[in-house]
Every structure is written in structure tokens, then in C-alpha cells.
Amino acid sequence: MKSPVSQKGLSMVGWLVALFVIGFLVTVGARVVPLYMDDMTIKKIIVAIGTDKSDEVGSVEDFYTHVYRGMQVNNIRDLDLKSALSVTEQQDVYLAHLKYEKREPLVGNIDLVVKFDHEFSVRKP
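and the corresponding C-alpha cells:
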């Protein structure tokens, strides 16, 4: 038997397991990170309505149109805005509720499911 001093590093099976775990984490990250980036972009578009003076948003339909145009500019095309976003108008604010779910295939019949649920109170410009 060799002494513990001469036994250094991982065995071949250890390296394979480590590579498998790293590959799995990279695959999951590559699938999930774009979903969160799209969500952050949509949130920025909605929040910008209250501060953007160039585009007048005078009604709920204008609100949807502004968000839809922002999604087109940012190449977010796989989200049904009418079912994901609900907007109500009060005296001086728009109350927006963004709630949707995205599924991303991982391996075979295993999917990653990410749910987003945000509420906004956007001042009318």
C-alpha cells in the first residue's frame, strides 16, 4: 500500500464525476440565464414608462404598446404579453402585474421551469 503522501489528485472516476457536475451546471446556467436576462429587460421597460417623456402613455393600450415595442427592440418574441401582463389604471398611476412561466428543455423529457411574478406601480408621465 502506498503512503498518503504519494497519493495525490483525483482518480479517473473522480475526474469524470467532477466533469459531469461542471458540465451539468454549465448547461443549466446556459438555459436559465437568458430567461432571467429577458425578465430584467421587461422590468426595465415597464419601469421606464414612468420616466420616459418621449413616448406619451395616456391609456392602458398605450402602456401595452410601449412594452410590446420595447420587447421587439430587445428581441423578446416568445412571450404572450396579453396573458403575462395585466394593467389597471388609477388616478395618477398604472398598476401592472407581470406574471408568467417559462419552460426550457434540459434533457429528454426533463424541463427547467422558471416562474416570474412582479408587481409595479408606475406613475403616469
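(Above: one complete record from the training split.) The first strand starts at residue 85 and ends at 89.
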